Amino acid sequence: MKFKGVLNATDIDKAVTLAGDELEKLGAGEKASIVGRLAIEEILLIFRENFGPEQPFKIFCLTGPGGVRVNVSVKGTSYNPLGEESPILKNLEDDFTVQPRWKYLLSQNNVLLVFPPANSLRKTIGFSWKYAFGCRKVFIIAITCQIFAALLGIVAPAISARIVVAYTTNELKRIIILAIILVVIQLLRNFFMVMSNLGYNKAYSSTLSALEKDLVENVLKVESECIDEKGSGMFIQRTTSDTQRIANGFNSIADMVGTIFNYAGVLIAMFMVDPYVALFVLGIIVVQCIMEYYRDKRLVADDRVFRKTNERVSGLVSEMVRGSKDVKCMNCEEQFVDKLNETILDANEKRWYMQKRSWTSKLFRWELGEFGSFILICLLVYNIFNGHFMATTAIVIFNYYTELGPNAVKVIGTFLDSLADFNLSNERVYALIKGPDFPKERFGKTDLPSVKGDVEFDHVHFFYERKTDHKVLNDLCFKVKSGEMVGLVGKSGCGKSTAFNLIPKLYVPTSGRVLIDGIDINELTKDSIRNNVTIVPQNPYIFRMSVRDNLKIVKDGITDEEMERVCRLACIDEDIKAMPDGYDTLIGEGGVKLSGGQRQRLAIARSMLKDSRIILFDEATSALDNETQAKIQNAIDNMRKERTVIIIAHRLSTIVNADRIMFMQDGKILKEGTHEELLRTCEPYHTFAAMDRSRNQESELPE
Ligand SMILES: Nc1ncnc2c1ncn2[C@@H]1O[C@H](COP(=O)(O)OP(=O)(O)O)[C@@H](O)[C@H]1O
Ligand SMILES: [Mg+2]
Fold first, then answer.
1. For ligand 2, a single-atom ion, which residues have Cβ within 5 Å?
2. Which of 255, 342, 461, 649 could bridge 655 with an S-S bond, Cβ 3.0-4.6 Å?
């Protein structure tokens, strides 16, 4: 990529976007592309300050030694934008984990940034090899069979050439014997080929299973913030399509070992017949292979861009299915389909562009191959004419050539394609499992099998994204003791759910500490936190399984009695029994076959099964009628005895009996106390309660 412009805002903007995209396309990685954009922008702005907006500049990116290189140069007197007072290095070093190498080339007045490749072939193959390693024996058998098939493939052309010669001399008996040998060879060759293919298929299934299992486990380890940001398409594509491509890649590589063996054998045989002609054939092959290599290099860059767009298609399709009712109700199918089509068209446009480039270059290569064949025929004719060799030798050579020449390049081309495909998929899966673009949740080492249940927020600040300056939690401090039931109220959007999400460490505070039993949760193991904390959300996710399995997933091996007991407590037992298959009824994806209230009650039953010490209700009864709500309230009141219960209430009536109410505003606790105390002392709470009363028309609330 090359961009020329002057240092005005529009051109700088264009150059920065182009260079950022190019960095990703060339394989520097997502994080590097963000760092690249920022760095290039800062460099250009500093140049503008010194040379003015009319000064021309040039920027180009290419892969070179050490990774992806970006060169930014400006005409004018020498000025180093990376000098001591430059804020670039400092800002970037403080904020980002991915760092390029920087260099100011004085003589040309330009800056060179080198980003290491996000993943190298060696690293990614090393990483994915461990998945194929489990079935190495099968691989070895498959390769051995293929080598046998290849060896037989070398003998076959020689025999068929002899048959042709025998035809010309009318040696009928000889023809029959040779034909029998040829048939036996072909039968054996077919047998070995089938065995090797069966082996490769077996290896494919085993590798794929191992890879998919690991990937799924890793997706669940990715930080929630990253999952929110990337969306479902990326995970769907990488766990399904990319894993298949990797498993396939191993087969292609193994397959190639046998094929190379075959071609090497044919080439050696050719050298033995006539070294000069063989050298010529080798030359044709090498030139074509070089062309293939460059074609594939471009293909990878184009494919990387295509697959990213394709992930967006998958994401949208998954959203379309999940949100189909909303789409239909809002009667916006057309707009949605248009939006989807736009993305599909974009993806297909990229695929077309990629294929166009690839096929054009294939055409050149093929034509060159044909030209080579023509010259070879001329060469053979010349040799026969000059008495260098006989017509039969020419036939053998030509037989070998038709077996080798076009096929070898085709196979090598296909191999390079699969290798590119394999490499790219490896890169994408490796990034998900190990790369910095998909940070994993981290936990401490302190193990607390059972906790008392004290929860404390110690000067907690929290931003969802580092880039925005909207602080959701702003110096949030509170303590809730074990055995207490506390209400948390505040206007919608003030950060209540966010605060809840920090307790089981779904998100990590930007600064400050969250403590359980006086220990910073950063020091605790995953089990110590997640076994002891449960959030019952307003919109719980119920899985596409039977009711029984939805409960079993929380606690394996529960008895029917236990299951029914908690369901009675959560007032859902009757509803379940009324379903067509009772506890075995299949609930749709996300629990679509249940009402909002049923989903909430099932989630409450789930949380009761989990039986953790700290239970956080996040508007968990908002969809229930007053009567059911009162019953569940009773169950919650019973639960509170040895537990810490914090309730974000949809209606104030659900928490007027709490030991304490904390009123939250602008990301911190404004005031806390009982309902009556707050009504008296906290004006915003008074207003909040008045609004709640008018909303719920609950005049029984004490003034
Ligand atoms: N996953 C998220 N990513 C980015 N911003 C979020 C996310 N979840 C919530 N927010 C923002 O954080 C703020 C607080 O949200 P939340 O804690 O859900 O409020 P509450 O539960 O008090 O209604 C809102 O401004 C919301 O837009
Ligand atoms: Mg909320």
1. 497
2. 649
